[in-house]
């Protein structure tokens, strides 16, 4: 369908874009020009995706962490399988596929998570280059691919659903914008995205903004009358009824509160803009008042983009609507404020950054040189931040980042358990007098579980990790006191870093009689 099918606003938008860039409308270019533009976009996408993958290359060196073991347990029949559509793709099917193909290999899981992130960055760069040009593709694409907020989504295999949902959601919006027959792929892509993570629920709102504010030459009809958009919109209430996310996310941990809306909004907005090694003060996943100034600045940029015609022509309204729509579902969360919840919104932040770069940078080789320099700085900044997030130590743990720390703790414990030569049907009790002594020396109440005990228990998912990775183990318990008369269990005396020694009750009683704290063999605290 040619440009004659466009509405008057659509024709004006195409003409404005063409006039602003000194080029003919997209549908008026020759086939050679379109082919060259596609090849250029492919090169930019490949470079951006490759840089994003390289930034997180070290993730493959780490073990499973926390909820990863629950995903494996579901696939192995050690935990109930998911029956409904709620996160079925990310929490069940992906783990089924991993076990069916390579078994419980964390390296493959990490590589797949990284590949999803690289594909998301590459798709964003492709779309920006095709829509706005080389400068926007380079700057906007590298802004997304190098953004530090994605760290947990890449390094924690269980969080791959955020990346997969964001990738499919962006593909759905792109298919919708293309129009004609391609738009019919949008509902299927949107449904697949919902099965990975419900945070992309408002994709139909973004598609409506695209139809209204960024029409393409082949957009078939207004969204209110388009059956493909109506099908996407109908999926929202259908999914809410069938998946019952309220029941799945019940409990105090997932409590919702109107009071959380504004602090969360300013925190996520601040994290979006404050992505620089020289300015980040804290990496904690919680409401961050020190980011509120950055948050106000980001929201002001969104408003500025909607106000300036030069930016509106470049899709800034879609960027504002898309960013707000993708963070909206997580804003009421009273206790969950996580960096990786930003992943779905980052492509729209990249659109605004790309639009700003396209409007500000001069045309020609000078502009391309500036864009390459800016993109290189973004990549180096992202690599530096990622390396820092991976390696920064913490006084009570191996690493400051909880995902990396608990992967190391679990790897240490599982390695020592394998080396212990456990018999079939072993029953294990985990006890850490050293962790208790550390807390006692710090003046903390010994009646409460110490940080080392709680952290190791979380890293091993209350012992489920042991049963998943060592199928011969029948039972695992975490205890806080030693019972010399309990001879039917083997005792795993562990340190805060997860390193442990497996002993019989009688042997442990003799050691305790001679030394108040049982030492564990020292281990290097490197990635496993």
Distance between the termini: 55 Å
**Residue runs with pLDDT of under 50 for 5 or more positions:** 1-32, 518-528
The largest sheet is: 4 strands, mixed
Mean pLDDT, nearest integer?
88
Distinct helical segment count? 23
Q: How are strands sequenced across the largest beta sheet?
A: 2-1-3-4
Q: Give the overall form.
A: elongated
Number of strands: 4
Which structural class do the helices and strands define?
mainly alpha
Strand content: under 5%
Give the helix level as a range of percent: 55-70%
Question: What would you report as the Rg, rounded to the nearest angstrom?
Answer: 26 Å
Which quaternary structure do these chains form? single chain
Elements, N to C (H/E)? HHHHHHHHHHHHHHHHHHHEHHHEEEH
* Whole-number total of structural domains: 2
Describe this protein's structure.
It is a single chain. With 528 residues, the chain is mainly alpha-helical. The protein has two domains: 3-391, no CATH class; 402-514. 58% of the residues lie in helices and 4% in strands. The chain contains 23 helices and four strands. It has helices spanning 8-21, 31-55, 68-76, 88-101, 106-131, 134-145, 151-155, 160-178, 185-196, 203-213, 227-243, 245-248, 261-273, 292-307, 309-312, 316-327, 346-360, 364-391, 402-419, 433-441, 451-459, 464-469, 505-514; strands at 426-431, 473-478, 490-494, 500-503. It is elongated, with a radius of gyration of 26 Å. Mean pLDDT is 88; it is low at 1-32 and 518-528.
């Amino acid at each position: 369908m040619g440009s004659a099918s466009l509405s008057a606003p659509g024709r004006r938008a195409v003409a404005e874009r063409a006039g602003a860039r000194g080029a003919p409308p997209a549908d008026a270019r020759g086939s050679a020009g379109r082919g060259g533009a596609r090849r250029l976009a492919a090169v930019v996408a490949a470079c951006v995706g490759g840089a994003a993958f390289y930034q997180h290359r070290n993730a493959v060196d780490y073990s499973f962490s926390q909820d990863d073991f629950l995903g494996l347990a579901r696939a192995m029949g050690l935990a109930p399988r998911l029956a409904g559509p709620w996160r079925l793709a990310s929490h069940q099917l992906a783990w089924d596929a991993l076990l069916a193909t390579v078994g419980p290999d964390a390296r493959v899981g990490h590589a797949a998570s990284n590949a999803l992130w690289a594909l998301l960055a590459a798709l964003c760069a492709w779309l920006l280059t095709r829509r706005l040009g080389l400068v926007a593709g380079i700057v906007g694409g590298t802004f997304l691919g190098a953004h530090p907020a994605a760290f947990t989504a890449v390094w924690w295999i269980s969080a791959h659903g955020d990346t997969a949902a964001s990738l499919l959601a962006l593909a759905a919006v792109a298919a919708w914008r293309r129009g004609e027959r391609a738009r019919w792929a949008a509902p299927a892509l949107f449904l697949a995205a919902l099965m990975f993570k419900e945070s992309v629920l408002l994709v139909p709102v973004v598609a409506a903004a695209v139809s209204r504010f960024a029409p393409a030459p082949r957009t078939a009809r207004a969204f209110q009358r388009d059956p493909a958009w109506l099908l996407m919109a109908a999926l929202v209430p259908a999914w809410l009824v069938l998946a019952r996310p309220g029941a799945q996310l019940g409990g105090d941990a997932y409590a919702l509160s109107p009071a959380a809306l504004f602090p969360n909004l300013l925190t996520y907005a601040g994290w979006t803009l404050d992505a620089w090694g020289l300015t980040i003060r804290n990496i904690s996943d919680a409401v961050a008042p020190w980011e509120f100034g950055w948050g106000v600045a980001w929201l002001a940029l969104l408003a500025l983009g909607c106000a300036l015609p030069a930016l509106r022509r470049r899709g800034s309204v879609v960027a504002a609507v898309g960013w707000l729509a993708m963070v909206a579902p997580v804003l009421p969360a009273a206790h969950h404020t996580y960096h990786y919840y930003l992943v779905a919104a980052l492509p729209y932040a990249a659109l605004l950054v790309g639009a700003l770069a396209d409007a500000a940078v001069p045309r020609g080789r000078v502009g391309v040189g500036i864009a390459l320099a800016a993109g290189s700085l973004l990549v180096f900044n992202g690599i530096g931040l990622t390396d820092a997030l991976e390696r920064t130590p913490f006084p009570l743990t191996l690493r400051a980042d909880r995902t990396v720390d608990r992967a190391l703790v679990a790897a240490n414990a599982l390695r020592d358990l394998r080396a212990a030569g456990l018999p079939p049907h072993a029953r294990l009790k985990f006890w850490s007098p050293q962790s208790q002594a550390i807390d006692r020396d710090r003046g903390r109440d010994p009646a409460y579980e110490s940080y080392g005990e709680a952290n190791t228990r979380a890293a091993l998912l209350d012992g489920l990790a042991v049963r998943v990775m060592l199928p011969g183990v029948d039972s695992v318990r975490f205890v806080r006191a030693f019972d010399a008369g309990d001879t039917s269990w083997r005792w795993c005396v562990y340190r805060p870093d997860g390193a442990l020694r497996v002993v019989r009750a009688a042997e442990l009683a003799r050691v305790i009689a001679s030394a108040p704290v049982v030492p564990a063999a020292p281990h290097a605290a490197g990635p496993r």
